[in-house]
Design a protein that fits this description.
Layout (H helix, E strand, L loop, with lengths): L11 E6 L20 H14 L3 E6 L39 E5 L16 H7 L4 E7 L4 H11 L3 E10 L3 H14 L2 E3 L15 E3 L2 E6 L8
Parallel strand pairs: 1-2, 1-4, 2-3, 4-5, 5-6
Antiparallel strand pairs: 7-8
Helix pairs in contact: 3-4
């Protein structure tokens, strides 16, 4: 499905995950070609504005010495430090002035990859009568994945803008897509190595396992 064929509907909201300078080329924790998703996100933001769909934007907002940083025993170099240019949303992203900002990663004792992790975001969405989230952003296999899984666990439908995300690694991206499919997320505008609508007997490939046919045996090939 292409973006042009995608339509928002009543009860939808658009969530842009962590499109911040530190995750873009030249940033402290840059995702390769992370900036390539911005034109796609801007196209969807324009459609959201035309349809009067609410927009939410999450951001990492780490204090100095955050537990996720490598010098504190974490997995990542220091990034998205509060009130720095690296933590700012990309100036190329056309976020509306009334976008609701969801701030995470502020705790001293744990990381918060998901926009739902102790932020009250689920309660805000329910108050706003949101039923389905259309999601894009960075990184597909870290904060986007955690956010999508939590959205599903809170009962929200999820439509992932697969061309509006980029993973830290290709392998991590394939596994993330698999996990999101298993959680019940749907995808927009992507040519994936994922078969979500084939009959159960059809031979097809699992994302992340490109050599293994997903087949219950009716094709006679296993």
């Amino acid at each position: 499905m292409t973006t042009d064929r995608f339509s928002f509907q009543k009860g939808d909201a658009l969530l842009i995950v962590d499109v911040q300078n530190d995750f873009l080329p030249g940033g402290a924790l840059a995702i390769e070609k992370g900036d390539a998703i911005i034109p796609e996100l801007n196209r969807v933001l324009k459609k959201a504005a035309e349809a009067r769909i609410p927009v939410y934007a999450s951001r990492d907002w780490h204090p100095g010495g955050h537990i996720s940083f490598q010098d504190q025993g974490g997995d990542w170099p220091p990034h998205c430090l509060q009130d720095t240019e690296g933590a700012a949303f990309s100036s190329a992203l056309d976020l509306p002035e009334d976008a609701v900002v969801v701030t995470k990663g502020v705790r001293f004792d744990k990381d918060q990859n998901s926009a739902f992790d102790q932020t009250g975001f689920a309660e805000r969405l329910k108050k706003d009568n949101i039923l389905r989230l259309v999601v894009g952003g960075l990184a597909q296999d870290v904060c986007v994945l955690a956010t999508v899984l939590d959205a599903r666990s809170h009962g929200f439908d999820v439509l992932l803008l697969e061309e509006g995300t980029k993973p830290v690694s290709a392998e991590g991206g394939r596994k993330a897509l698999t996990d999101m499919i298993k959680a019940g997320a749907k995808f927009v505008d992507a040519e994936l190595d994922v078969c979500t609508y084939a009959p159960e007997w059809a031979e097809h490939q699992r994302p992340g396992e490109p050599e293994d046919a997903c087949d219950d045996g009716r094709s006679g090939k296993i």
